[in-house]
Amino acid sequence: MKQAYHFDENGHFIDTVVLENHQLLPAYHTDIRPPDGLFQPTFQDGHWNEGMDANRIHELRNQQPRVTDIEMLLEEKEDLAQ
Fold first, then answer.
1. Which residues of 9-32 are buried (b: 16+ CB within 10 A; e: fewer)?
2. pTM for this one?
3. Which terminus of the chain is less hemmed in, N or C, by CB atoms within 10 Å?
4. Which domain of life does this protein belong to (predicted)?
């Protein structure tokens, strides 16, 4: 068994698939693993690139974490206890 990485016609990563060792890579697949840390892996010219705009990456890295429902309920409980 071997892993392959499926991408669309624009090179955007879709999924990791498992192939039999004797199978040839189908179209829009590569055996080159996308590196960790890419927000939108895009396969072009035989290697993976970042497909997301640098401004969007900056926005994502700097946005405030979303308050979960549990955190919200705990805050409400604390407010009621006072």
1. eebebeeeeeeeeeeeeeeebbee
2. 0.71
3. C
4. Bacteria
